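User: Good morning. I'm curious how protoporphyrin IX containing FE would be positioned relative to this chain. Could you predict the structure with it bound?
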Amino acid sequence: MTQVGGQEPASYDTLGGGPFFEHFTRRFYEGVAADPVLAAMYPEHDMAGAERRLRMFLEQYWGGPTTYSDERGHPRLRMRHAPFAIDPEARDRWLACAASAWQQACDAHAVAAAPAKEFWDYLHSAAFAMVNTLPRM
Ligand code: HEM
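Assistant: Good morning! Here's the predicted structure, ligand included:
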């Protein structure tokens, strides 16, 4: 992780620990449920499970508890997303949900600007990397 402007790099702790990740994923999935394209892709009867999987993954990625891999093994995110047709539209809808959740969670947990930006940059580039389908014509 790179250090920005001499400030603390992003980590589980500098982002606000468990409460930050809970807040982010709760808001994120509220956005997913309200988006017709995304809602159709996610498991209708297991949104709480999906929310938990994303939270555990992000917590682990940023140096928090390793519950994700303890329960689910290696993340292999591209492979796990292969069953879903993720085109640029789905990516942008996902990012819109993420942007709103990110803003709210960073404000609520008073996350400093540098780790907040680092977290966002990660979500943005990871979302671009998850695209596996050409745009609809
Ligand atoms: C680009 C748009 C994306 C779409 C449309 C999308 C869609 C989905 C869907 C439909 C699922 C299945 C829900 C479940 O049952 O867990 C899923 C799972 C998951 N996604 Fe995404 N995703 C996207 C991007 C991302 C990104 C950028 C990340 C990480 C930063 C991510 C992390 C995860 C994780 C950790 C899981 C659970 C994997 C597992 O353990 O089964 N996704 N995603």
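The chain has a mean pLDDT of 94. The domain at 17-129 is CATH 1.10.490.10 (Globin-like).
Let me know if you'd like a different ligand tried.
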